[in-house]
Design goal:
Number of helices: 14
Strand content: 5-15%
Low-confidence stretches: 262-268
Shape: elongated
Structural class: alpha+beta
Largest sheet: 4 strands, mixed
Strand order of the largest sheet: 4-3-5-6
Number of domains: 3
Order of helices and strands: HHHHHHHHEEHHEHEHEEHEEHEE
Radius of gyration: 28 Å
Helix content: 40-55%
Length: 351
Amino acid sequence: MEWERLTTDELEQQLLSNRELRSRLDAEDIEILEVLDERQVVTADGSRSLAEWTAARLDIGLDTSRTLVRTMRRTSSRPDLRSAMGEGVLTLDRVEALSRLGEDSGHMQHTDIAGVRREASNRARMEADAEFRTSRDQFVVMQPTLDESWWKFWGGLDGPSGALVDKVLSERADELPSMPDGSKGDAGWRKAVALTELCVSEDAPPAQITVFVDAKVAAEAHGEAGVVLSSGVKAGRHALEAVLCDGNTEVIARTEDGRYLDYGRKSRTVPPALKRALLHKYGHRCAIDGCDGRHRLEAHHLVPWSEGGATNQDEMILVCWFHHHRVIHGRGFEPFADPEHGRIRLRRRST
């Protein structure tokens, strides 16, 4: 259909018609899911939950499937809401919100869906035992992979703590600068970066790190293998550069015959005086062109220290934590002085 030929009113009416049809179909889906739930399709197909089963079968997001399943269960004793949705009067989102309230709430057409949810939250009772339980039972679990190259964590917080953490992470995530290509990453990635950044103190002490290098393996793999930190964590070439860039490190190499050679290169790579000089040079701001970051500024070697880069003012720049760890070391970009005006820009590494 050529939508451009329709008037604005006609287009709006088409949208409303589609919404009514969608509501009727959602009402049917809820009734079908109720029957499938009684038949325990989850157990038969080996899924962990009905929401997971629904997401896989309908090829929809888990949040959407959870809304369907949650609404199905909450409206089992609210035929009035199911009937209204089946007639196309109420949307799935409004029914889901109304299902949190009592039957005396009506359809609350005088307020938007967010208002319905606020009213539901306002009416919800929090008994003392439940309040103490949410505070007592909050937890965080962190689980690394075998080589500790990836960490997964989950948990639960009481209402006020969860709201506080979400607010702080969301606000800090929104403040993160864009990537060199203009993208900012999705909300989950930005919150993960914000959480990590908040855990780094303003003046983090230099890490005391020992790096063990299997000389033969590392040489053959160009640094992509044969490098392990003292904790046993595998380090790739770029991760190693990040470790060596700003910390107390010593490199111990193992020769082919098994002998260990201590190179003795253990030094604080960025003395306080040099850090102050860089702060003054860059006006207490990140050196990357277009970034006005003043938070957790760190010194970075233009030529990686692992490749012989010198620790002096002429061969180092000052960058914010985000650009240092997430863009330069995390995404493989390198800073360079633009030949036209000398400002520091970022580009992909050639190797």
